[in-house]
Write a structure and sequence with these properties.
- By secondary structure, this protein is α+β, with helices and mostly antiparallel strands.
- Among the domains are: 123 residues, no CATH class; 221 residues, Beta-galactosidase, Chain A, domain 5; 124 residues, Sandwich (Immunoglobulin-like), CATH 2.60.40.
- Helix content is 17%, strand content 33%.
- It is built from twelve helices and 40 strands.
- The strands form eight sheets. A ten-stranded antiparallel β-sheet has the order 13-19-20-21-22-31-28-27-24-25. Strands 14, 15, 16, 17, 18, 23, 26, 29 and 30 form a nine-stranded antiparallel β-sheet that branches.
- A hairpin with a 2-residue loop joins strand 38 and strand 39.
- Helix 6 runs antiparallel to helix 7.
- The longest helix has 33 residues.
- The relative contact order is 0.12.
């Protein structure tokens, strides 16, 4: 489809508007642009108002358009997306047009100044700006997507931990953290993060990420040691007993899982010789469910408590055979496993607050069989051809019951136990043929969804249901025709309505597209997709040329996608969660998330070189890949609009470290700050120490925070999610004192220092409290100038 109009006003989710040029012009299609110019360069009739989106009736809109047209033609020089100045032929063209007084050379500012007088008569576009091209970039090269998201999560955590340390009088590591952002942002270049580069690029990126992760884990240790040093606490007060400090970095009370390597809790010789049992309690004597599991709860390197390990995709495609790593990952010996500890729903950790838990180890005399296939596996070992009469496997916790087909690993029913309501008909992986396209890594074949392939059958599985916390099944497939082997780990947790479906694969496919399907038990024609800060609603049934399966067969999402419908007069929302995947497609309420795309690498230039002994790989993502997904649900009431919080909780772990990290070790539950009144629609997206004025040709130092002795500048990024104008207070803990507060832009430039007439919507109320007014869907950044008490003052 061509874009509906060349020039328009784009109205964003926060109702702010921008003048937008959306002409489809390239160096080779200037003639096509001129052919459509008269039809698409529209003006609205005097006195009329046009607000359009993809579902609009464009024939009705046509009646409101004037016979006049926007009399400005734009010809932009350059060579594709690679830049370059004007080429010789373009210079000749410009000279000829200028001689005939038909055109003039100008800047982009000149162009928008020329368009400005027509602003009131331009149509308004209030929808996403969807590009019907390059949809494969949402999936291509799994390692770059995973490491990019993991880096952002870790940097969010270390900035918050650094803020806590500075507010307690510790060292400010924000300059080091700012340097870590640079390689992460560099790897977001438009041919790197999309997965359209050559293998050399991703090997370089893996080295960058390794450096970022290593430094973050080192900073975490240094900051934790500083905090613990001020508290005067040791890691272990008694032999065989460990204290773990847990900080909730999200702005709502939450439950969840932390995972700790077994090797960090008990010496290797004791792991080998004794069976293990752990008791976990907090400072108030509350007991926490826990269990040893083969894998960490979050993806590799994302959880500070799980430790630093090899970067996902390191030495990218140097070894295309992932079978050995696949086996080790899923059936690892006990010393490489993790202790999962559940923070329960009835004892959530408050936002921006600490909790300390104590782990004690009991040793039983029974010798532990180190064989991974026999460790805590119940019922039986399934093999194809045996127990063929078994039509389904049932896993259940106290909330849901799921039925799994033993020959495919597909979940065929999800039932709520309190009402026997069937809410989901199908959950699991599906495979499609994805024929080669001209730009193979960039694009998905437009007819892929018409060509579903058969997934390999299950070869064997093991069930683990003898524990208090986890109910799980681990299923292994036969090799596919191409040689791919999959492990499906389907897992339920106590008191948790979520189905965790973790896929690991030795991927050997050629031009195939692996997706994860979720099909609810109700019908509908819309889904909601997570975006950076908020959500977008999309139609999922064909309605016009913009909303059909030829135009929109893949679209972006972040962290979560949901669909809503009625079952037995109840409004149910089904939510598909992901940690590092961005491509989604839906037919009605059937949602399919893209996991892996077996495309060909782009042809390298002659300057590109791999190591001499490495053959150049032809296909993307061969070898081992871990693909984390989950499906959850909720009953919708009039008081909750959409569940974006589950997406954040699935992606952002608790910040957990050994030792007591809170001041004096005795204020569990006291928050760094609290939002009053409690606002479900408010999210604190970042907490960090203010940066210094950057170096450059012309930075104005007065625009930035100037750190004075005894003062700390704390930056908070605040997001309104539901589209409601909201007023609230932020109250800091008693040991933190507010000097003043200002609004800044995203670069931390103070608005009132740039423009004296700027009217701020933040205000200091007293020495611990400030008030905030926020507009619908606004992203607001505030800078709080603070003075903290010294440790001697705190002890007094």
């Amino acid at each position: 489809n061509k874009w509906p109009y060349h020039t328009l006003i784009w109205r964003g989710p926060d109702n702010e508007s921008e003048l937008l040029l959306a002409w489809n012009q390239h160096k080779n299609n200037w003639h096509k642009y001129l052919k459509t110019f008269r039809k698409l360069s529209v003006l609205v009739k005097e006195g009329e108002n046009v607000v359009a989106n993809y579902l609009s009736d464009f024939e009705e809109i046509e009646k409101k358009l004037s016979d006049d047209y926007l009399p400005i033609i734009v010809n932009v020089y350059g060579h594709g997306d690679g830049g370059h100045g004007p080429r010789p032929l373009e210079i000749i063209e410009e000279i000829c047009w200028d001689d005939e007084n038909l055109a003039k050379m100008g800047t982009m500012r000149d162009l928008f100044n020329a368009l400005e007088p027509y602003r009131a008569r331009l149509p308004i576009w209030q929808d996403e700006l969807y590009l019907e091209n390059h949809r494969g970039t949402l999936t291509s090269v799994h390692m770059i997507k995973e490491n990019n998201k993991t880096s952002e999560v870790l940097l969010h955590a270390i900035e918050m931990l650094n803020s806590i340390n500075v507010l307690q009088g510790g060292t400010n590591y924000q300059p080091e953290i700012t340097e870590l952002w640079k390689p992460v942002l560099f790897c977001q270049f438009h041919d790197v993060l999309p997965g359209s580069s050559i293998p050399e690029v991703y090997r370089d990126c893996a080295e960058d990420y390794k450096g970022v992760y290593k430094t973050i884990f080192q900073l975490n240790n240094r900051i934790t040691e500083e905090i613990q040093g001020r508290n005067g606490k040791t890691l272990n007060e008694n032999k065989g007993e460990y204290k773990i400090s847990i900080f909730n970095q999200l702005s709502w009370a939450r439950s969840g899982i932390i995972s700790i390597p077994i090797r960090d809790l008990i010496p290797h010789k004791d792991i080998e010789s004794k069976n293990l049992k752990f008791n976990v309690i907090d400072e108030n004597g509350n007991i926490y469910w826990n269990q040893i599991n083969t894998i960490s709860f979050y993806d590799v390197n994302r959880e500070l408590s799980a430790g630093f390990t090899e970067v996902s995709g390191y030495n990218y495609l140097r070894n295309n055979n992932g079978r050995e790593k696949l086996h080790i990952f899923n059936e690892s010996p006990i010393e490489k496993r993790f202790l999962w500890i559940q923070i329960p729903n009835n004892n959530k950790i408050k936002p921006f607050s600490w909790r300390t838990i104590k782990i004690s180890i009991e040793k039983e005399e029974k010798t532990l069989d180190k064989s991974p296939k026999k460790t805590k596996l119940k019922n039986y070992k399934y093999e194809a051809g045996v127990n063929e009469t078994l039509s389904q496997i049932i896993l259940e916790n106290n909330i849901i019951k799921i039925n799994i087909k033993p020959d495919t690993g597909m979940i065929t029913d999800v039932t709520l136990k309190d009402s026997e309501m069937h809410i989901i008909e199908q959950i699991g992986p599906v495979l499609y043929d994805d024929p080669k396209t001209r730009f193979d890594a960039w694009n998905i074949h437009p007819d892929y969804f018409k060509n579903q392939e058969v997934m390999p059958k299950i070869e064997s599985y093991s069930i683990d249901t003898e524990n208090d916390l986890i109910e799980q099944i681990l299923m292994k497939t036969y090799p596919s025709d191409a040689g791919s082997v999959y492990y499906y780990r389907i897992l339920l947790l106590k008191d948790d309505p979520t189905i965790y479906y973790d896929i690991t694969v030795d991927w050997q496919e050629d031009h195939k597209l692996l997706k994860f399907r979720t099909k609810p038990s109700f019908n509908g024609d819309k889904i909601k997709c997570g975006i950076q800060y908020g959500a977008i609603e999309r139609a999922t049934t064909p309605q016009n040329r913009f909303i059909n399966y030829e135009a929109k067969f893949e679209y972006p999402t972040q962290q979560w996608t949901s669909t809503t419908g009625r079952i037995n007069d109840e409004l149910i929302e089904i939510i598909l969660l992901n940690r590092n995947k961005y491509g989604i497609f839906a037919k009605g309420t059937q949602i399919e998330l893209s996991l892996l795309k077996a495309a060909e690498f782009h042809k390298p230039t002659s300057a590109a070189t791999l190591d001499d002994d490495d053959p150049r790989p032809r296909l993307i993502d061969r070898g081992f890949n871990r693909l984390s997904t989950a499906v959850t649900f909720r009953r919708i009431t009039s008081n909750n609009q959409f569940n974006w919080k589950s997406g954040y909780a699935y992606n952002y772990p608790f910040i957990s470290n050994k030792g007591v990290a809170n001041i004096n070790g005795n204020i569990d539950g006291i928050s760094l700050f609290e939002i009053n009144p409690k606002c479900e629609n408010i999210f604190i997206g970042a907490v960090k120490i203010a940066e210094k004025c950057p170096k450059g040709i012309n930075p104005n130092e007065t625009w930035f925070y100037k750190n004075e002795s005894g003062h700390v500048g704390l930056v908070l990024r605040i997001i309104e999610y539901y589209g409601k104008k909201t007023s609230f207070n932020i109250k800091f803990s008693d040991d933190i004192f507010i000097n003043n507060v200002s609004e800044t832009d995203m670069l931390e430039r103070i608005y009132k220092n740039m423009d004296n007439s700027y009217k701020e919507n933040v205000e200091k109320i007293d020495e611990h409290t400030l008030s905030v007014k926020i507009k619908p869907k606004e992203i607001k950044t505030i800078l709080v100038d603070m003075k903290t008490k010294t440790m001697d003052e705190l002890k007094e």
